[in-house]
Design a protein that fits this description.
This protein has 407 residues and is α/β, with parallel strands linked by helices. Helix content is 34%, strand content 24%. The protein has helices spanning 3-19, 25-37, 47-62, 68-71, 105-118, 166-171, 177-189, 203-211, 255-262, 280-287, 303-317, 322-332, 398-403, and strands spanning 76-82, 87-91, 94-97, 129-133, 139-143, 153-157, 193-197, 220-224, 237-241, 269-272, 295-299, 335-341, 347-359, 364-378, 384-390. The strands form two sheets. Strands 9-8-10-11-7-12-13-14-15 form a nine-stranded mixed sheet, with helices on both faces.
């Protein structure tokens, strides 16, 4: 069907939707049937083509237009809309260009407004960068004009419908069974664990898997910029999400605000989805105020690089001596787990590091590598071969002893 005819159907559908009360999906499909029956040419179209047209019309007014097909596709992990220039998707770890694209800038802008409206957010020339999420939990980043030169840029990170378990990660050789069992005991005993890694290394996925080891009778509070975590099986779970300021610049609720208020909500553990800036100091202070077993993630090229970034992010929020920051990090974080995305597109745990303490004479944070990934070449398909090798024993066992857990 040509674009002009489709837009004619869509215009008639929108005009009638404005006249009715809030309609259910079934009622909208019935309304589309009525409109198509008014056009005698559609009566002689094959049933499969007619069904496809109905779905396209429905998606254009109620869902995400041509993107809905990709959002519903389990094999697609990332969707990248480069304005009207084209749409790229990540499938199986590789990037490919999709055959479809938006026919007009106006059509793409309609989708943007549809996405942000459902999250109670605004996207326009004044607020040109927006983070949001879809109903299925997928993370969305939107960049509008004048920042985006070629039209709105939409990036959608799609998460699995069912959270990936630690058993699956072991099966995929992302982590060894020995390391997973080790982490299970430390999570149960209340060790504070920080997960680091680059973009797309699987930090959120690993955090979800790790959270399954938290005792189910504890009170958990999750704090995120956009709610993405899928904590399973915890009955006493509180999910908090930051809120952007409105057009007048009022009513903003930041990650820092949420961390501070969570301390008054009687949490057993606090999970901060990701630290990116000045909220890092509040995250560290919560770790140092008796909330053992808390978890968080951050972007870093290595565990030691992540420690330096934590220092930098704390200084974004307040000016305090670096030595004081390092003491906060050393006393608050017990363990760091570093993830990486390999050249064969696989994601693996590359290192597990114990934070041993703070050295007052040198002013350094003392660390010890407990597990490290050792590469052993590639197979005939180019897949990286190797394993996570144990390098040392855990030194700080006080929390294990208090919890009655033995390694």
């Amino acid at each position: 069907m040509n674009e002009r005819k489709f837009q004619n159907y869509r215009r008639r559908l929108l005009e009638r939707l404005e006249k009715y009360r809030e309609m259910t999906d079934t009622e909208i499909y019935d309304l589309i049937d009525q409109i198509l029956l008014e056009d005698w040419s559609e009566c002689y179209v094959r049933l499969s083509e007619r069904s496809e047209l109905k779905n396209e019309l429905f998606n254009s007014v109620r869902r995400l237009d041509i993107l809905q097909e990709l959002v519903d596709d389990d094999s697609v992990t990332e969707i990248m809309v480069n304005g009207t220039e084209g749409i790229f998707i990540e499938r199986g770890g590789g990037l490919i260009r999709w055959e479809k694209s938006f026919s007009s800038r106006e059509k793409l802008e309609d989708i943007v407004q549809q996405i942000v409206a459902k999250c109670n957010r605004v996207a326009n020339e004044a607020v040109s960068i927006v983070d949001a999420r879809l109903e299925n939990g997928a993370r969305v980043n939107i960049v509008m004009a004048p920042v985006a030169v070629n039209g709105p840029v939409i990036t959608i990170r799609r998460f699995p419908d069912h959270p990936i378990s630690m058993e699956q990660l072991i099966e995929w050789n992302a982590v060894s069974a020995e390391a997973a069992d080790f982490l299970k005991k430390l999570v149960h005993a209340g060790y504070n664990i920080f997960i680091s890694g680059g973009t797309g290394s699987g930090k959120t996925t690993f955090l979800n898997a790790l959270s399954n080891y938290i005792p189910k009778d504890e009170r958990i509070i999750t704090i995120e910029d956009n709610a993405e975590l899928q904590i399973q099986g915890v009955r006493n779970l509180v999910r908090l999400e930051a809120r952007r300021a409105n057009e007048e610049g009022d009513n903003e609720v930041t990650i820092r605000d949420l961390i501070k208020t969570s301390l008054r909500m009687r949490p057993d553990r606090i999970i901060v989805g990701e630290v990116r800036g000045d909220e890092t100091i509040d995250m560290l202070q919560s770790l140092n105020t008796g909330h053992d077993g808390s978890l968080s993630t951050g972007h870093g090229n290595s565990p030691r690089d992540m420690l330096s970034r934590l220092e930098t992010m704390v200084l974004m929020g307040m000016e305090i001596p670096v030595q004081a920051i390092r003491r906060q990090i050393a006393s608050g974080i017990d363990l760091m787990v570093h993830l990486g995305r390999m050249r064969d597109k696989s994601r693996k745990v590359l290192e597990i590091l114990e934070i041993e303490g703070y050295e007052y004479q040198t002013g350094d944070i003392l660390t010890r590598t407990l597990f490290e990934f050792e590469e052993k070449g590639e197979d005939e398909r180019g897949s990286i071969q190797g394993c996570l090798v144990k390098k040392a024993e855990l030194q700080n066992r006080q929390k294990l002893q208090r919890a009655g857990v033995s390694l």
